[in-house]
């Protein structure tokens, strides 16, 4: 569900500013945009005018995912809510741009009227110009009303649909991390209790079928590393983008104090609960790093590749001693070249989806460097994965428990202010 929401959330980077207000510190509606003084609007306009919105019939897979999400979400379809917010924000931007154009025309007519007065122009021209100015003023007033109406619809969607769906998503992620923590604790215990894994592997003689399995395992390990890093980054990108969009709707000017600039706090501004929770959510996930897990995964994959290279080298030496194995050597070299290309491609993909940098695993093995040069124990490197995973999932579980507790407190606060009961 979260990955399905990601494209809609990424598009929201281009959304028009939606002004949220509190009684004392923020405006009560979307303020009139002054002509030639809104670079954000112009920037967003360029983004949206160059983007093509494709409306096509959904595939069977998309319909199934939508159906599954409808069943999973008790508060409605989160993807649908994000799409509606995107469409209303797009409409808001169009109306603001239209209002800006009318203001520019209005200012030009005011200048024309002033010039006519200074030149002593005919009365008919002055009256005609004043009439056009009144028409433009009426259009501007209507445009402002439309902008305020759309802003109200966005606020209602945000508070009535996005807020409860966000709470439900947080609860689901909290349960997910709890289950994952328990699973990784079991896995860590199992690998810690295992004995003589490395000695059994060192004494084994591998045939060609075994070598193919090791090669397949290596490529699967790199896919696992890439998917894990991409999955975690997708969650972080989701909440970061959502929080960035919400912050654009808050008028906030940092205040200098003796202790420096205080951190941004929507709660101190009296913002609605979703502002508070998403800000805490973004800060919470930013403190959790998956780098130790990815590093441990890479070390284990490097050891597996080192094992493959070691036995492949032994096979090569045996063939070189046999003069009739030239064709077998050529086949082996071709297989090794294909393996190197596959490794390079998968490591490039890993760099694209994570913050990891460094030499590719295939290059590390070929030059005798990398994690396997310091520790070639498969059992120890596998245990390191689950130790790092246990730490990571425990931190994630605690973060979402605290976040869920904070969300419940915000619900109770709002319910107390409105005199209703917490659902």
Compact summary:
The chain has 423 residues and is mostly helical.
Notes on the protein architecture:
The structure is a single chain. The protein is mostly helical. The chain has two domains: 1-169, Substrate Binding Domain Of Dnak, Chain:A, Domain 2, CATH 1.20.1270; 194-250 and 264-415, no CATH class. Helices cover 75% and strands 0% of the residues. The protein has 13 helices and no strands. It has helices spanning 2-11, 39-49, 60-72, 78-119, 123-193, 197-202, 208-247, 273-286, 291-321, 326-353, 361-366, 371-374, 378-418. Helix 7 (208-247) runs antiparallel to helix 9. The radius of gyration is 30 Å and the shape is elongated. Residues 1-56 and 356-374 have low confidence and may be disordered. This is DUF632 domain-containing protein. Keywords: Coiled coil. It comes from Triticum turgidum subsp. durum (Durum wheat). It holds the Pfam family DUF632. Residues 89-116 form a coiled coil.
